[in-house]
């Protein structure tokens, strides 16, 4: 029996466990793959207050050590359902685990939509990135490609065009689908070019690092030399198992505000899985803090 169970071991989930423990509550963090979430894809993280530079994996390991030191427990399992049992919650997992608690914080995060090309996973952090704010500085003065054509891709490219020597847009549709104003801003810049109606079919490598992107159009293939590829073709929240407990918006994110509360008493959400304007490690940690303190207040009132 735990006071709080946290579903997800990214920065939001681990921050929630930290604040739960420091407020005298027992906590269990259930993570299905690996602790750290999307931050582990970043070879260098330089936007953490008070930290000059740290790798995403080092940051995740440090957070995990911190919550374990505070007394949090962890399990590697996949949560499939959360049930109300009186004033308690019963958390069930795919592996057959059943865990009781008074409050649950869902911090399942999101995963980046991938291109689905052979060798892609191996190049994440070795030339393939997903966040211009996080990794753009590593490509200052270099050539990068951006896969995508919606608002997110255009916004990423605008940021990159301020740092990089050249930004090459790769869109699989005949035209860009993002806002006209964003397109005007981006394509007014001399260091930005575009290929539309193309499919990314492969990668070129130099050693272990990306050196080029192979594209195909009308049956013709070519390789575009580049130092990096930013993939901006969407995010996938994994909130479907919990839709009866918390409202989802049309994109599948938890439809809740900065309070991190839901329509179900004792159920809270935190991090990138929540509907929000900014998804960064600092905003995820802030959500974890908010959700944990709200959960503690809820338990204290039982």
Explained architecture:
The chain has 302 residues and is of the alpha/beta class. It is 24% helix and 30% strand. The protein has helices at 11-22, 56-69, 120-123, 132-135, 151-161, 180-187, 281-300, and strands at 2-7, 27-31, 73-76, 79-85, 88-93, 98-106, 110-112, 128-129, 143-147, 166-171, 192-196, 199-206, 209-217, 220-225, 228-231, 235-237, 267-269. The strands form 4 sheets. Strands 1, 2, 3, 4, 5, 6 and 17 form a 7-stranded mixed sheet that branches. Strands 8-15-9-10-11 form a 5-stranded parallel sheet, with helices on one face. A 3-stranded antiparallel sheet has the order 12-13-14, with no helix packed on it. It is elongated.
Give the overall shape, derived from the CA principal axes.
Answer: elongated
Can you give the helix content as a percent range? 10-25%
Main sheet specs: 7 strands, mixed
Instruction: Kindly estimate the percentage of residues that lie in beta strands according to DSSP.
Output: 25-35%
User: What is the distance, rounded to the nearest whole angstrom, between the alpha carbons of the first and last residues?
Assistant: 16 Å
Catalogue the unreliable spans: none
Number of helices: 7
Rg result: 21 Å
What pattern of helices and strands is seen along the backbone? EHEHEEEEEHEHEHEHEEEEEEEH
> Got a strand count?
17
Task: Name the structural class.
Answer: alpha/beta
Let me know the average pLDDT.
94
Topology record:
Blueprint: E1 2-7, H1 11-22, E2 27-31, H2 56-69, E3 73-76, E4 79-85, E5 88-93, E6 98-106, E7 110-112, H3 120-123, E8 128-129, H4 132-135, E9 143-147, H5 151-161, E10 166-171, H6 180-187, E11 192-196, E12 199-206, E13 209-217, E14 220-225, E15 228-231, E16 235-237, E17 267-269, H7 281-300
Parallel strand pairs: 1-2, 1-6, 2-3, 6-17, 8-15, 9-10, 9-15, 10-11
Antiparallel strand pairs: 4-5, 5-6, 7-16, 12-13, 13-14
Helix pairs in contact: 1-2, 1-7, 5-6
């Amino acid at each position: 029996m735990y006071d709080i169970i946290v579903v997800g071991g990214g920065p939001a989930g681990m921050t929630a466990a930290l604040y739960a423990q420091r407020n005298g509550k027992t906590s269990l963090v259930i993570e299905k793959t690996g602790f750290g979430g999307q931050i582990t894809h970043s070879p260098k993280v330089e936007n953490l207050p008070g930290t000059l530079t740290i790798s995403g994996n080092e940051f995740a390991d440090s957070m995990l050590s911190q919550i374990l030191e505070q007394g949090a427990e962890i399990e590697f399992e996949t949560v499939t359902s959360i049930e109300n049992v009186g004033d308690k919650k019963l958390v069930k997992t795919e592996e057959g685990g059943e865990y009781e608690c008074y409050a649950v914080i869902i911090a399942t995060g999101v995963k980046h939509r991938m291109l689905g090309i052979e060798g892609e996973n191996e190049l994440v952090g070795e030339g393939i990135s997903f966040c211009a704010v996080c990794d753009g500085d590593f490509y200052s003065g270099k050539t990068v490609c951006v896969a995508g054509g919606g608002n997110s891709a255009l916004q990423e490219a605008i940021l990159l065009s301020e740092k990089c020597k050249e930004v090459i847009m790769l869109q699989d549709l005949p035209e860009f689908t993002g806002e006209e104003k964003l397109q005007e801003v981006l394509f007014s810049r001399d260091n930005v070019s575009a290929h539309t109606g193309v499919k990314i079919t492969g990668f070129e490598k130099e050693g272990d690092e990306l050196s080029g992107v192979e594209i195909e159009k009308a049956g013709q293939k070519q390789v575009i030399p580049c130092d990096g590829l930013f993939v901006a073709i969407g995010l996938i929240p994994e909130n479907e198992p919990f839709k009866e407990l918390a409202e989802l918006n049309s994109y599948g994110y938890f439809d809740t505000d900065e309070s991190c509360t839901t329509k179900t008493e004792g159920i809270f959400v935190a991090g990138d899985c929540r509907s929000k304007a900014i998804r960064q490690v600092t905003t995820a940690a802030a959500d974890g803090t908010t959700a944990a303190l709200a959960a503690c207040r809820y338990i204290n009132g039982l």
